Records
---
Amino acid sequence: MAVRPYEKPLSDCTVLIAGLGLMGGSLGLALQGKAAHIVGAARRRETLRQALAMGAIEEGYESLAAGVSAADIVVLATPVGIVLQQIAELGELARAGVAQVGCVVLDLGSTKELVCQAMLALPDSLEPLGCHPMCGKETSGIEVAEARLYQGAPFAITPLARTRPQTVALARELAESVGARPIELDPARHDHLVAAIS
């Protein structure tokens, strides 16, 4: 039987980053040399051009559908409202056989209960879990992305009941590879803590 994406080490994975603003662009820069391939998806061609020019990605796609077939890990690095739409789209792509069986789907959104609830509807062929790196800047956009953004930052990981231990381990590996500190939390507990802090 073929090795499932969630069973691979990060160094063997193709990572698709959907959304190439500050968070997604910085993740692409920080992952260089740590994953097998880093590709990106963004609606604006100019954003893809900038991400390619600065070395955040190796290939760019103008849609999630165009880039997902080869992805072992899909990182949804867009605002939560768009993340929810992308989760629904990924579900359709998986049911159509476009996404790999065992593809890991994680997001970088600041709200975890809503996102994890939406992830429950994903087909069993996908491996979902919520994530939230607690870092950022006052400015946004690919032009302010930097490889050190995640250094020392808490990186919340909020697995679903169905999330495999190997998937959690891969998410931890991804967080640690960009210099972040992974912390496993229940989605509701995460949201309570974030609300208290802010």
---
Amino acid sequence: EMRKQMISDMQYWLKEANIDGFRCDVAMEVPVDFWDEASAQLNKTKPVFMLMEAEQPNMMEKAFDMQYGWEFHHIMNDIYKGKKTVADIDTYMANRNTKYQKDDINMYFTSNHDENSWNGTEYERMGDAVETFAALTYMLPGMPLIYNGQEYDFNRRLKFFIKDEITPKTKGKMFGLYEKLGKLKNTNSALNGGKNPANYTRIKTSNDSKTLAFERSNKNEKVIFIANFSNESTFTTINLKGNFKDYLSGHTINFRTDAPLGLKAWQYLILVPVK
């Protein structure tokens, strides 16, 4: 009876408020078969988008469309601390294809309400690599999350369960960056990250423990991401040829497979081919 009432209450919001879906808190503490049943019933009323604050493959099979990318979030934190390397990103991306269905969506983030309050702001956890990791959340197959205040360079832990205002709301460095990243993701199909994600192809470098390089592609569009995920400057050669525009600066860069690329600590490039 409780399950029937819960589903009925969810139906209310679809029928009376015409919402598009639900974000389900601590979803892994509720039996999977309830979510399977609820999702099936809700989708008979209208197509709904189901996001869970959890990360479990079996809950993505029928019930949910998108999950929180907790594992990848902790990988990013540990890379900044020096506990993990780019190799751990490669392992994660390889395992993703075996653990999940193609239409399963991961939501990537550098912060959220729990992390901000309990483990610190992204600046506490990621220091001068915040911008690099933020860019990465837009480049991977999936969807990015911007938590309250991140667009305003907000650098303070918000109080939990108590009203705590985000002030001042001043547009700084991250506001413009998020605008540019959002525009590219929304207009370039190579960054598709929903039910029909664009391809992800790792690009080989001469320093794969520190340098992450990959290509996103869809039909005739491509986006290349290259980053030095270490706190030291590095030189690396990359299996990449041709002329590319650095999306953020607008500069054109010519790549030769035998020419070393110098990257400062935590420096990254987002490249689109020059047509």
